[in-house]
Amino acid sequence: MAILGLDHVNVVVSDMERSLAFYRDLLGLVVAMDRRLDGPWYERLTGTVGVRARCVILDRRDGGCRIELLAFEDDEGRPLPLNSRHTTPGLRHLALRVDTIDDLAARLGVQVVEVPHDIVRGGKRMCYAQDPDGAVIELCQYGSERPEFC
Fold it and tell me: Which of 20, 25, 43, 92 is exposed most, by the fewest CB atoms within 10 A?
C-alpha cells in the first residue's frame, strides 16, 4: 500500500450558499460536482441512519486544489443540527489517495464502501479511520487515474 497524495480536504458547512459565495466567488474555485449524498452506502460510511448531505466539490480550473463542502440536511433540504463527529462545522477530514485500500482498511479495522458509479465515474472505494487523537482520515482508491464526478 502506498499513499499517492492528498485527495481533498473536507469542510462541513452550515450554509452552502454562503460557503459557495466564499470559495467559488471570492477565491475563484470552480464547481466540479454538486449533488446529494444519501442511501445505504452513505449510512454505512458515516455510521448514521438516514444521513443525507449536499456535497459540492470545488477545484482550480487546472486541478490540484480540491475542497469538498458538505451541508447535512433533512428530507426537506433543511440544515440538520450540527453536533456529531461528521456534522460539526469546520475542517472535518483529510482525504488521502491510496493505490490499494483493502489491506490497510483491514489493519485499521474499518469497512471499505463502494461509492455509486453515478457519483464518481470510473469508481471510488473509500473508508474513514481515525488517527490516535481522533482526527478523521478518509482513505480513497479510484478506479481511474483522474476521477470524473457526475
Answer: 25
